[in-house]
Each structure stands twice: as C-alpha cells, then as structure tokens.
Design a protein that fits this description.
This is Carbonic anhydrase. Pfam families: Pro_CA (PF00484). The chain has helices at residues 6-34, 55-71, 81-87, 107-110, 130-143, 157-168, 176-182, 184-193, 198-216, 221-225, and strands spanning 95-99, 118-122, 147-153, 230-236, 243-247. 38% of the residues are buried. It has 10 helices and 5 strands; from the N terminus they run αααβαβαβαααααββ. The protein has a single domain (6-247), classed as Beta-carbonic Anhydrase, Chain A, CATH 3.40.1050. The structure holds zinc ion.
C-alpha cells in the first residue's frame, strides 16, 4: 500500500514489537517476584499499525483520526505501556504538526494519535522563526517524516489580538509584539482579500502563507519536489472538531 520503503520499516516495527513484548514479559516477572501488588499485563497492544511512509498515507491517517475525534468514536492508539516500550529507544513519527498554543487545539487529541506518532510544535498563531522552522524541519530532514501540517484554527486569540494591534497601530505588550509582527503578512493578505470576518480571513491566510513558505524553503523544497514530503495547510473548527485541508493536499495513497 505504501512506498517501496515499507518492507524495511515493517521489519523494524515487527522487531520492535518482539523486543517490546519481551521487555514487558521480563518486567512483569520481576514485578511479580516482588509481591502480589503488581497488576497482570493483560491489555492487548494497540501499536500494530504500521507507520505510514508516504505523504498521502500520512495525511489519511490524520484525517481518519480526526473523523473519530469528530464522531467521538476514539481509538486512542499508541498510548499503552507496549507502545512506550516500543518507542523508548527509537522514534519514527509519521507527521509534523505546527499548531497554535490554544488549549482547545491539541494535535494528538484532535487527530486521535498517540505516543511517538507526531512531532508537535505549538506557538501563538502558529507563527514561525528560525528555531521553530528548524524544529519543523527536523523530522523530514533527518528521518524522512513524510508530512507537515500547519494547523490554524477558528477564533484564534493570537490572530485576533494581532489583527487589532496592527489595525489600530497599538503594539502588543512585551514579547507578544513579536507574535503580532510575525503575523503582519497574514494581516496584509487579509486586508487585500477582504471578507465578512477579517480575523478568520487572516487566520486562514496565516496558514496558507506559512505552509507556502515551508514548502518552498531551500531545505524542504527538494523533498517536496520529489514527492517525499507534503506541507499541508489546514484549519480546525472549534465548533465541529473538524480539520479542513486548505492547501498542499498530497496525492491520495493507492489502495
Ligand atoms: Zn490560536
């Protein structure tokens, strides 16, 4: 189903599961010898899904997880002790999410993912600077992470504050002003686009501009060009819980 690199990763995963299972067994035995208080390890592992290796498959994994979040039919994958053991020595996240600090927009929850599935960066209004861009690039550049999602959201307080600050010519206090400055290009695009709700327009503009910048930067553009990486701009509805893809949707996976 996925790319040609799949068998290798499958082998790695299978090996990891065996090691994890062995470690858990050993741990259980040791605990049992210490006394009767240790609970038996009977939970079935939830870590059998192979990490997607293509941009399209990675996005489908997130979209499927978001559907479960919207419906309430959550799977809570990759959150048990087996998973912790599996990723303790080596991580292999299939996606990078850059989202806002907003307490209502936690990527691992709204995509129904678990431990070791995602690299997550969160800043006010998902603004970037060199340190954040470097952090976003880490997975794709060092281990072939196939997907970056720039995730904006409805009623973003950072965007609203920046919009009003720039519009009124009144700088935000302290270091908050750095966020407003980083959001100025999105403000200017929102002013050009117009629309009934300029703050929402600006929030969407911020997503699209940030995703475009990442997609075309000198480190990531070569990966995008050869189809090994997609940079998706997306938007989260606080009202419905649904993530809408705005830009950069990769080809759908085969099968
Ligand atoms: Zn926000």
């Amino acid at each position: 189903m996925d790319s040609a690199g799949q068998p290798h990763r499958r082998t790695l995963l299978a090996g990891g599961l065996v090691v994890a299972a062995g470690a858990l067994t050993a741990c259980s035995s040791a605990s049992a010898s210490l006394g009767p208080t240790a609970a038996p390890t009977t939970a079935a592992p939830t870590t059998t899904e192979v990490p997607p290796t293509t941009p399209g498959a990675a996005l489908r994994r997130l979209v499927d997880g978001n559907k479960r979040w919207v419906s309430g039919d959550l799977r809570h994958p990759d959150r048990d002790p087996n998973r912790r053991q599996l990723v303790a020595q080596k991580q292999e996240p299939f996606g990078v999410v850059l989202s806002c600090i907003d307490s209502r927009v936690p990527p691992e929850l709204l995509f129904d993912t678990g431990l070791g599935d995602l690299y997550v960066m969160r800043t006010g209004g998902q603004v970037v600077g060199p340190v954040v861009v470097g952090s976003v690039e880490y997975g794709p550049m060092t281990s072939g992470t196939p997907l970056i999602v720039v995730l904006g959201h409805q009623r973003c307080g950072a965007v609203k504050a920046a919009y009003e600050s720039i519009r009124d010519g009144e700088p935000l206090p302290g270091n908050l002003e750095a966020i407003a400055k980083a959001l100025r290009p999105a403000y200017e695009q929102a002013v050009r686009e117009g629309g009934a709700d300029p703050v929402e327009t600006m929030a969407r503009a911020q997503v699209k501009l940030t995703a475009a910048d990442l997609r075309s930067n000198q480190d990531l553009a070569p990966l995008v060009k050869k189809g090994a990486l997609a940079v998706v701009g997306a938007y989260y509805s606080l009202d419905t819980g649904q993530v809408e893809v705005l830009t950069g949707r990769p080809p759908a996976p085969v099968g």
